[in-house]
């Protein structure tokens, strides 16, 4: 099945979506954390905490952080869950290089490691991880079904997947306020701070095109997961999905 978000790409290019997303994140890596926290006004830290807390009951010891970016979720996951090890994977070396520096500064290089991997075809053995986590990355997947099936494959039986993704509020007045925020504020701030003028136009378009709520839980179930649920935070600006192998 093809999804609308898979057709939303950063550049007018003949490259596939994965290559375009990699190029985009490499170009904004240096300023990504500043931009991200500025545009979310720091609320994203609370979203991550709430999502990660959903995994506490199962006490995962080996965690895969997919689309790890600069490692924010991995660092927060270590603080909250205290696992033996977290592997952060991403297609952007530029983003992960920033993450490696942050992890080293935090003294966690023996607990959190990074590898360049494409989640469409993971070079990871079956049944390797107790949990997989993704923050604001699944809408960038070149093939959502393929990516979810790969995540399922590398999870151990009973392992959990926790996804955080930006979503579009459905009710007044947040729906209207968010439209202005995403169409005006995000692209304007992105153009002012980032070297890549198109990256922060891509962001709201990819959020708008991505499936959410019940459609996403049904997609998780269709791809082999069980017990798929979702919650929304900040009046629908962020959605959390939890499912089990």
**Spatial sequence of strands, sheet with the most strands:** 3-2-1-4-5-7-6
Major sheet summary line: 7 strands, mixed
Q: What does the overall shape look like?
A: globular
Q: How many structural domains?
A: 1
Average pLDDT, to the nearest integer? 92
Tally of helical segments: 9
**Portion in strands:** 15-25%
Number of strands: 7
Percent in helix = 40-55%
Which consecutive residue ranges, at least 5 long each, have pLDDT under 50?
A: none
Q: CATH superfamily, please?
A: Vaccinia Virus protein VP39
Order of helices and strands: HHHEHEHEEHEHHHEE
The secondary structure category is alpha/beta
What is the distance, rounded to the nearest whole angstrom, between the alpha carbons of the first and last residues?
21 Å
* The CATH topology: Rossmann fold
């Amino acid at each position: 099945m093809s999804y609308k978000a898979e057709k939303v790409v950063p550049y007018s290019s003949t490259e596939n979506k994965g290559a375009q997303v990699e190029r985009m994140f490499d170009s904004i890596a240096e300023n990504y954390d500043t931009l991200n926290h500025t545009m979310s006004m720091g609320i994203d830290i609370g979203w991550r905490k709430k999502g990660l807390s959903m995994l506490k009951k199962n006490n995962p010891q080996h965690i895969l952080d997919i689309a790890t970016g600069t490692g924010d979720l991995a660092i927060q996951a270590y603080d909250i869950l205290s696992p033996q090890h977290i592997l952060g994977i991403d297609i952007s070396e530029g983003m992960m290089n920033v993450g490696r520096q942050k992890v080293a500064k935090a003294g966690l290089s023996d607990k959190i490691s990074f590898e360049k991997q494409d989640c469409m075809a993971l070079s990871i053995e079956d049944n390797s991880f107790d949990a997989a986590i993704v923050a604001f990355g699944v809408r960038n997947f070149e093939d959502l079904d393929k990516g979810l099936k790969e995540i399922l494959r590398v999870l151990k039986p009973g392992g959990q997947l926790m996804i955080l993704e930006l979503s579009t509020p459905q009710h007044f007045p947040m729906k209207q306020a968010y439209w202005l925020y995403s169409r005006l504020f995000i692209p304007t701030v992105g153009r002012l701070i980032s070297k890549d003028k198109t990256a922060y136009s891509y962001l709201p378009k990819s959020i708008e095109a991505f499936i959410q709520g019940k459609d996403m839980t049904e997609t998780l179930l269709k791809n082999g997961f069980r017990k798929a649920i979702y919650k929304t935070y900040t009046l629908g600006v962020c959605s959390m999905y939890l499912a089990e192998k």
